[in-house]
Amino acid sequence: MHVLEQRKLGRTEATVTSLGLGTSPLGGCGVPVSFEQFEEVITAAYRGGVRYFDTAPLYGLGKSEHTLGHILRTHKLRGDVTLSTKVGRVLKPASRAKRAESRYAINWVDPLPFVDEYDYSYSGVMRAFEDSQQRLGVDHIDILLVHDIGRVWFGEKYDIYLGQLRDGGFRALAELRSCGAVKAIGLGVNETESVLKVSDEFKLDCSMVAGRYSLLNHEPAKEFFPECERRGISIIAAGVFNSGILAEGSAGNPATRTYDCQAAPDEVLDRVRKLESVCERYRVTLPAAALQFVYRHPAVTSVVIGALSGNQVETNIASLTARIPEEFWTELQTEKLIPAD
Question: What is the residue range of the signal peptide feature (predicted)?
Fold first, then answer.
């Protein structure tokens, strides 16, 4: 078993390992996932030293929470791990409700018979939290993230849902934190602007940000990360492979060699080839470089990655813990593939 580094989130008592396991793929995101497969991934992660697991009501429309909770309980792992889930959606019976509109059309394979409805109000946050407790079978949740509250995600409806948070959602979150039902509060989003905007009005301990900071996208390091550090907001980085290209490489399967969920454009492929050239000279794998580049930033507390097999989990752990010489990073700077600072 690897002994993965553990860090506190913000100024809270919640701790996360350097590598966390995200369970969106295990919810059946575009592919069928059996219970045995789900169990294999969770137990392989635990054996490998992972002590942080992330889920959400959206993942498999309740299926991920149900299955994760059952596995943690039956293997007696709950007391050793940190759990995060999300609010902002309430699940309703599929026969009597309409599914929430989404910017991203997610095809859940064999989900539970529910649909998700956006609700960031006081009652919506409380119901989502209590429903997640029931599905997970736990009496408290360590980290609670407000899911997808961003202008890019909602477009013209953003102010409506942000208004629900202001009118009652923030109060619900504050109550849950103050009574000890959760240790840390944050956002779970695909954009950085919303983190600072919400933080202007409500104290955030952390935020999970997907796909914004990677070996190919350094923009958050300029202003966003320093501001998060100043405000005491720990970053949980997700989507660090930019949806596939940094895991597959330039010669990977075109179907999964994607950048931000789209076919990787030529300029991205050209940059990846340059990265691969330096990796080859130093005998460093591209996934290892991608994972460790993100984790090296002091604003990043944990890197969360999904997996669909025990082998994938082991590969991810090996990538994060592999030794990479400082000369490798220096050459990437010299080649202007990462920032000089």
Answer: none
